[in-house]
Amino acid sequence: MTEPVYVTETRSAYDTVAESYAEMLKDFLESSTWDRTMLGAFAELTGEGPVGDLGCGPGRLTGYLASLGLDVFGVDLSPTMVEVARRTHPHLRFAVDSLAALDIADGSLAGALAWYSLIHTPPEELPVLAKELARVLRPGGWLLTAFQVGDNQRRRIENAYGHDIAADAYRLDPDFVARLLADAGFVVDARLVRKPGPSYEATDQAYLMARKEG
Question: Range of 21's domain?
Answer without folding.
Answer: 5-212
